Amino acid sequence: MDDSLFNTPRPDFTGIEPLNVGGATCECFKVRLYGKLHFLKRLKPELRTNPRYVAALRKEFETGYNLDHPHLARYIACGDDYLLTEYIDGMTLGDFAKTNPAFFKSKANVNRLLSALIDVLDYLHSHQIVHLDLKPDNILITRVGNELKLTDLGFCYSDTFTDTMGRTDTFAAPEQLDGDGTVDQRTDIYAVGRIIATLPCVTSYRKVIERCTKASKEDRYQSVAEIKKDLSKPRAKWQLVAAIAAIICLTGLSAWWLSTKQYGKNSLEALPSDTTTLAPSPADSTAASKTAPEATEAGQAVAPEDNGKPTAQPITIDNEPATTPNKPEKPAPAPPKQAIPDKETLRSELIAATQPIYDKYLKQYENRTTINYGDLNFRDNRHKCDGEIADKLFRLWDTKYRPMGVLESDYNPIAVEVIHYHTGKVDVKVEY
Known about the structure:
The protein is 42% helix and 11% strand.
């Protein structure tokens, strides 16, 4: 790359390598400075003399330079039209989810990533900073250790820099889309819900997503600490189950021990108190046996016979003969289990089930001035369409596919594909 692209005076960058991660306003490079890799972000040529964009770049640096958190990219230096941060060897969250779907089958892995995201947002919010551009492209997962790093404070709001000049519509909250709404930490919380909805584990976080993405800020989580509390609830639930199980076991053991102790006591009481008591004579025993028939434990009267052998006589009630119990009826055969659809069939079924929702919202905007509906650009109501599609997919999982035997690890990635199928239609246009 030609060194003349950089203003002077400037550090002596070497090994300059363009990166395909730039946005609408900046170009990005991997560079070496004193033998160490760094990430360089520079305004595009047509914007380098625009005072608004130059001020935004400086705002990002001054905001980030004073921050220090293990899950936040560190800001190092700034020039007239560029800034320098630490280089993070990894990939975006979106790419990581596509290439490592097995990672998201473990709820412990997902909770660890979400906990890191919540921790760094809590840190920003405690410094009166709202990120306002949370999205998978601004979250990096390191190659070593799969640690999370949050980047790009270019659109952030802070006490000293209140100009928020941009957003990403797909993850923007309604108050950002309105343009006149007041942003705060709940605006970031909305984006957290949208990010979780893109991961191949959406059914496990249904309630969290729903509350994060409420249209009204008052109905969302009021702080990221509340999200963290909800994420830890399943673990506390299992701890409670384990505690209850332990109590039941202890109760059963105690009852067994007491019954054993009481049985031993009763056995001792049944023994004769005077071991010198004389046994009855054989003559007395013979006389007693002739006076009355004996009763056995089985409830049958035993009468003596001439040969001295007892004969069992069945007991009758009101001269009715005893009856034998009826044989239990065989249970009705279980209905045949519905066949589990393959992945392509499941995807087609989910698309067909959610297509009416997409069509409904598209029809509402046929008379609007928006020409291209790529990325489901429904302005302020776009998030409602996405949320309704996601909710439909959740209900289908609960009521149909989970009872059918479809694995959650198979269903989640397909559900995300279906959401992207609807929200990523770039060929849908409305003619006027």
